[in-house]
């Protein structure tokens, strides 16, 4: 202050304010280097059907009237933002085709370049973009860009957020490029074809919060240096070919909230340091080859919401401290080698909605405390030696939507309390259940999947079955069900839900002809799988099956079916598999059926078919046609023409 006498200070103030006024009120016109760089970019755009660049024209000022272009006070372009999906009031989904012009590298003041979601930008990222020393934000995601990240990107030292996900980029991730992105906080490179390992220089990106490399072709093991990323919150390395074990250094990721390492080839056990990930909320390690036990101290991770570690080789008992994870909503442990009992402490998980522990070696008895899980919606205990004997009565107090108890040692009849449950999925398959399919099954109107296969049920299908108007998948195979199938096809439909998707009624004692109108029933409109094999069905194959436009798999083997194969079957264009063996079918094989475009499996062996096997593109072995006295022609021996 003392340096300036009042008059000088006043003069300076006047001077400054006039400069500021000219800067703020009268911004400079667009710099010619910038406007020609942008026009050159527009020049390389071959299709712009929704006019994303319509306002960019030579006779107007790029700073004043070009949409998506923002300049600084000296007329230099700092922001270019023309994403394909943008939302002010309405969401406009648009596209733009063409390549990225190298001229963009001349926008030397650029801080933000957003050309994301334009869907049809092709070709490589020009190395000239490496000249943009001030660039903070680069968004080129959701396009069809190819090639690798240009080496010149080493010079993008101001980069804070880079998203190039969902393109077709390839090549290894260069360690020197990564190292130079000292200011980067978010790095999104997912859904490309990047290969090679994760460079260990990644550990130098001290301010990184998000690293997303999912769905690439990344291999090798995760570098130990990753543990240096003290600010990392989101890590997604899923769906790659990453091998090796989870580095011990992972414990250093104290800010990590989301950790997705699923669908890789990782081995080894979860390091003890795992329980230092005190911020972890979402943990996915599923579909790997991980071994060893869950850390005993897992209860320390108080923020954990979801644990998804199914399909690995984990062993040991489920640690009792898991009951301390009071934020837990979902626990997926299926298909591992967990043994011992389900710890009673799980009953403390008041927020638990999903408990899936199928395909392990868990033994009984089930802790009855689990009745306290009031939020539980989905329970899968299938394929464990639980020796349940009956479905525990206290299950009726849970408000489950999904209950799967396949091969858990249940015997006896379906308990009546099921009739008042709101279940949408019920799987009691592969048990020793007996008795009838009761009339009250018609009260279970929320059922969308019912699997009673591999049991000893013996009854006909009660009329009330028609009330299951949301049922889509029904599997009753390998029981002793008898009577007519008709009721099943007459099922009501609660449009748009409740159309059958799959029906497996095989290996039962169903009788009678297959209903002539089977393919015209409302319930059958979108069925994909229909398996009626190994029953005592007689009559002929209904031609209405040809009306099932989504049918991919039709299996009718080992019934007493007579008559010809209806040529209308050739109208079910989605058919990939037709199995009609071991019946009494006669006549010729219709051309139209054997030439179905998607047909890859066909079997009519053990019938009374005759005539020449029609020409077909797919390769079927001779065993598909064997033991039909009158059939001839490739792949069987040639026909004897008179
Ligand atoms: C540029 O835009 C102005 C105003 O929108 C328009 O009048 C003019 O015809 C355009 N020029 C070209 C070359 O498209
Ligand atoms: C450029 O975009 C950034 C990030 O969206 C924004 O913060 C900045 O205000 C914009 N600059 C101008 C001059 O509009
Ligand atoms: C960049 O600007 C320079 C100088 O204005 C010009 O000569 C050059 O052609 C421009 N480069 C591109 C790729 O447009
Ligand atoms: C990075 O910038 C420097 C100086 O501008 C230049 O000499 C060098 O070639 C650039 N590096 C790459 C890889 O483009
Ligand atoms: C993935 O990388 C391996 C080599 O590591 C290569 O053999 C394979 O072709 C790549 N796959 C794809 C889809 O790029
Ligand atoms: C079906 O489920 C809904 C909730 O999705 C529930 O309100 C309804 O009571 C259930 N119906 C039956 C018959 O359980
Ligand atoms: C029913 O359960 C058996 C195993 O017990 C399984 O193989 C089959 O796929 C299941 N069916 C459906 C429709 O889920
Ligand atoms: C089946 O539904 C009808 C009406 O759709 C109803 O009158 C009948 O009580 C239901 N039967 C059972 C067993 O739920
Ligand atoms: C089935 O529903 C009917 C009508 O809603 C009801 O009268 C009957 O008691 C129910 N049966 C059982 C076993 O819950
Ligand atoms: C197939 O469906 C059409 C239209 O609903 C119907 O006219 C025709 O009779 C059906 N075909 C057979 C063989 O049932
Ligand atoms: C066709 O069915 C017969 C009888 O079940 C079987 O022996 C044969 O292997 C089957 N062939 C093919 C190709 O599926």
TrEMBL record:
Coiled coil: none
Entry's localization field: Membrane
Residue ranges of domain Leucine-rich repeat-containing N-terminal plant-type in the record: 34-72
Domain of life: Eukaryota
Entry-linked Gene3D superfamilies: Ribonuclease Inhibitor
Gene Ontology CC terms: membrane
InterPro entries tied to this protein: Leu-rich_rpt, Leu-rich_rpt_typical-subtyp, LRR-RLK, LRR_dom_sf, LRR_N_plant-typ, LRR_R13L4/SHOC2-like
UniProt domain Disease resistance R13L4/SHOC-2-like LRR: residue ranges: 266-426
Membrane topology, as annotated: Single-pass membrane protein
Annotated signal sequence range: 1-21
Alphabetical UniProt keywords: Leucine-rich repeat, Membrane, Repeat, Signal, Transmembrane, Transmembrane helix
PANTHER family for this protein: MDIS1-INTERACTING RECEPTOR LIKE KINASE 2-LIKE (PTHR48054:SF14), RECEPTOR KINASE-LIKE PROTEIN XA21 (PTHR48054)
Protein name, as recorded: Leucine-rich repeat-containing N-terminal plant-type domain-containing protein
């Amino acid at each position: 202050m003392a340096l300036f006498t009042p008059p000088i200070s006043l003069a300076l103030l006047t001077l400054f304010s006039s400069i500021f006024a000219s800067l703020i009120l009268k911004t400079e016109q667009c710099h010619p280097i910038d406007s020609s760089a942008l026009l050159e970019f527009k020049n390389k755009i071959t299709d712009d059907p929704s006019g994303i660049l319509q306002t960019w024209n030579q006779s107007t000022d790029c700073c004043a009237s070009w949409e998506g272009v923002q300049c600084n006070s000296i007329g230099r372009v700092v922001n270019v933002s023309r994403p394909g999906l943008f939302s002010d009031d309405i969401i406009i989904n648009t596209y733009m085709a063409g390549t990225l012009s190298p001229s963009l590298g001349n926008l030397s003041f650029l801080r933000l370049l957003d050309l994301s979601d334009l869907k049809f930008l092709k070709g490589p990222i020009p190395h000239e973009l490496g000249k943009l020393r001030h660039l903070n934000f680069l968004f080129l995601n959701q396009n069809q860009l190819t090639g690798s990240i240009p080496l010149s990107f080493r010079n993008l030292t101001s980069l804070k957020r880079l998203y190039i996900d969902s393109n077709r980029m390839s090549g290894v991730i260069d360690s020197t490029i990564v190292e130079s992105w000292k200011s980067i906080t978010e790095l999104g490179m997912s859904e490309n074809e990047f290969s090679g390992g994760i460079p260990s220089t990644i550990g130098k990106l001290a301010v990184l919060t998000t690293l997303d490399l999912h769905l690439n072709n990344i291999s090798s093991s995760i570098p130990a240096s990753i543990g240096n990323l003290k600010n990392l919150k989101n890590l997604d390395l899923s769906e790659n070919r990453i091998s090796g074990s989870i580095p011990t250094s992972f414990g250093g990721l104290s800010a990590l909230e989301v950790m997705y390492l699923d669908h890789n080839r990782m081995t080894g056990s979860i390091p003890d340091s795992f329980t230092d990930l005190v911020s972890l909320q979402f943990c996915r390690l599923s579909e790997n080859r991980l071994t060893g036990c869950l850390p005993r101290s897992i209860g320390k991770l108080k923020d954990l919401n979801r644990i998804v570690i199914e399909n690995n080789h984990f062993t040991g008992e489920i640690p009792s401290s898991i009951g301390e994870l009071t934020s837990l909503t979902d626990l997926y442990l299926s298909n591992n080698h967990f043994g011992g009992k389900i710890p009673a402490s799980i009953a403390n998980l008041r927020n638990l909605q999903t408990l899936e522990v199928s395909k392990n070696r868990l033994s009984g008895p089930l802790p009855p405390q689990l009745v306290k899980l009031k939020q539980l919606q989905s329970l899968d205990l299938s394929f464990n030696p639980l020796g349940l004997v009956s479905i525990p009565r206290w299950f009726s107090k849970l408000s489950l939507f999904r209950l799967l108890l396949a091969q858990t040692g249940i015997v006896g009849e379906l308990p009546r309390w099921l009739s008042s449950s709101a279940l949408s999925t019920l799987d009691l398959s592969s048990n020793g259940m007996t008795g009838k399919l009761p009339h009250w099954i018609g009260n279970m109107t929320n059922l969308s999947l019912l699997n009673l296969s591999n049991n000893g049920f013996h009854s006909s299908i009660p009329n009330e079955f028609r009330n299951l108007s949301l049922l889509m998948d029904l599997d009753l195979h390998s029981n002793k069900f008898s009577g007519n199938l008709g009721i099943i096809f007459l099922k009501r439909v609660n449009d748009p839900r409740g159309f059958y998707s799959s029906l497996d009624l095989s290996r039962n004692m169903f009788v009678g002809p297959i209903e002539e109108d089977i393919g015209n029933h409302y319930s059958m409109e979108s069925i994909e799988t229909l398996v009626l094999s190994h029953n005592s069905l007689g009559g002929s194959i209904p031609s209405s099956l040809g009306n099932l436009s989504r049918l991919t798999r039709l299996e009718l083997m080992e019934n007493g079916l007579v008559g010809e194969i209806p040529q209308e079957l050739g109208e079910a264009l989605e058919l990939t598999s037709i199995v009609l063996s071991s019946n009494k079918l006669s006549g010729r094989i219709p051309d139209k059926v054997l030439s179905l475009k998607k047909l890859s499996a066909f079997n009519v062996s053990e019938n009374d078919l005759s005539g020449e096997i029609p020409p077909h593109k797919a390769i079927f072995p001779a065993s598909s046609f064997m033991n039909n006295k009158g059939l001839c022609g490739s792949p069987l021996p040639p026909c004897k023409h008179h």
